[in-house]
């Protein structure tokens, strides 16, 4: 996937995951990785920044599988921020789809329209 596409949306994806439940860093990365190729070097700075900005709070919980884990919990302020970003994303992606899908979505239709330009 194009790195510039990813960079702009990863934060919203992290927020979307944590709106549902508290998770620790590795688990957040794992859930994102099911859909998007991400690394620790991308996610942990986002988690630190969003925590510093009071959108998340953290707590430590013991684990049966090793060291205690640092969990991230979305705050009320974080939820308001999430809704704002979500609204901005929906408006943005709606506009993008209107532009790129003009006249149809299928590649064959797009090719026919492109080819027709040169036949006239």
What does this structure look like?
With 120 residues, this protein is an alpha+beta fold. It has one domain: Winged helix-like DNA-binding domain superfamily/Winged helix DNA-binding domain (Arc Repressor Mutant, subunit A). Helix content is 63%, strand content 16%. It is built from five helices and three strands, in the order H-E-H-H-E-E-H-H. The longest helix has 25 residues, at 76-100. The radius of gyration is 20 Å and the shape is elongated.
Quick summary of this structure?
This protein is of the alpha+beta class and 120 residues long. The protein is built from five helices and three strands, in the order H-E-H-H-E-E-H-H.
Q: What is the topology?
A:
Elements: H1 3-18, E1 23-24, H2 25-33, H3 40-52, E2 56-63, E3 66-74, H4 76-100, H5 107-119
Antiparallel strand pairs: 1-3, 2-3
Helix pairs in contact: 2-3
